[in-house]
Amino acid sequence: MSFDLTPSYDELPGVRPVVDELRRYLGGELADYERAHGLGPESRYDRSVLQPVWKRSRELGFYGIHLPPEYGGRGLTHSELAALKEEVGASGRALYHSVLGDMGGPLRAGAIFGHATPVQLERYLLPVVDGDRACCFSLTETDAGSDVRAMRTTATPDGAGWRLTGRKVFSSAGPFADFSVLVARMAGPGEVYSAFLVDLDSPGCTVLDGEVPLSGQHIESDILLQDCYVGPDQLLGGVGDGLKIGLGRVTSNRLLHCPTIIGHARRVLALTIEYAKQRAIFGGTLADLQSIQHKIADMATALYAARSMTYDALAALDRGESPRTEAFMCKLFVAENAFAIADSAMQIHGKAGMVRGSEIEWMFRRLRMFRILTGSSEIQKNGIAKALLT
């Protein structure tokens, strides 16, 4: 894999035409849409702003493109999907997360297509694919993050269905979702967990403003459940399948977070190179200073290493292998080095980078979060060490 700030994806010939189309949309029509609506990454989005992007992205073939043809997708490999995720991450668009369906769309629904009944597909998932409905995922609780078995949200039997009681936090896309894929502990002895499709307008279910993360994005909700009834047709999979569904496809999901991070880091590096070439100082430019040249060289080298190891692991996944340890390594290395790239970018930009409203400042905050999101760096190290020492 060669290094380029605008990758050609020669090793993925099947996706190259899609990349070209995606770049044109991101840099043209979507950029114009954001400017017309005054949208930035910290804007409050409502359904009236987001849904046109979902529908247009679906019309252009991007929304749900990873799905098999029977659901209107192209059945992409993991590596091909990663290329598209990298491109949206590198685009600089505020609504990058809505183009492929990461935020409330078919990518958010993820692996549950394989667990849904025909009725659930028709009622919940296919409308998500078409951009008519949106979903969120509710697993985390205040005292149950990495230790998901500490969750207290409980499903108590009531006739053929259950009553849900508890509170979920950090339900991404919750502010504009129609339903949640929600995991709860089953009442009774033992540790049994099940997943439910919960309509967010159900009696006993309240969507509350979630905490605003470091990135300033208003995309999180708390889901408060107070004796909320769910019927047997809302059980996803079987009783006891909750953690399998909630944590399913962990290796692929962990790897597929990396291209978005890489895309962000790529954007940061491109902005830094442009700034260094233009910033006048001491009768020349920043780019003339060896200290700046060395920082940029280190940034580019880290990015190349992160991309190479990620796509290598994704290629193994596409071959039917299970690169579990490599996925831990990728998430650790990519998250740590992407933030190091952002930190160097901030240092090079100086005042211009650290003021609110600067894209570098926002990327710095966003990339810092990935050292915790989807499993902290310490969790990744635990996984690596366990694989090597047991």
UniProtKB/TrEMBL annotation:
Gene Ontology CC entries for this record: cytoplasm
UniProt xrefs under SUPFAM superfamilies: Acyl-CoA dehydrogenase C-terminal domain-like, Acyl-CoA dehydrogenase NM domain-like
GO biological process, one term: medium-chain fatty acid catabolic process
InterPro entries, per the entry: Acyl-CoA_dehydrogenase (IPR050741), Acyl-CoA_Oxase/DH_mid-dom (IPR006091), Acyl-CoA_Oxase/DH_mid-dom_sf (IPR046373), AcylCo_DH-like_C (IPR036250), AcylCo_DH/oxidase_C (IPR009075), AcylCoA_DH/ox_N (IPR013786), AcylCoA_DH/ox_N_sf (IPR037069), AcylCoA_DH/oxidase_NM_dom_sf (IPR009100)
Domain Acyl-CoA oxidase/dehydrogenase middle: residue ranges: 136-210
Record keywords, A-Z: FAD, Flavoprotein, Oxidoreductase
Gene Ontology molecular function: flavin adenine dinucleotide binding; medium-chain fatty acyl-CoA dehydrogenase activity
A Pfam cross-reference name: Acyl-CoA_dh_M
Superkingdom as given in the UniProt entry: Bacteria
CDD domains the record matches: ACAD (cd00567)
Acyl-CoA dehydrogenase/oxidase N-terminal domain segment(s): 19-132
Cofactor: FAD
Start and end residues of each Acyl-CoA dehydrogenase/oxidase C-terminal domain: 240-389
Stated family: Belongs to the acyl-CoA dehydrogenase family.
PANTHER family according to UniProt: MEDIUM-CHAIN SPECIFIC ACYL-COA DEHYDROGENASE, MITOCHONDRIAL, MEDIUM-CHAIN SPECIFIC ACYL-COA DEHYDROGENASE, MITOCHONDRIAL-RELATED
This protein's name: Alkylation response protein AidB-like acyl-CoA dehydrogenase
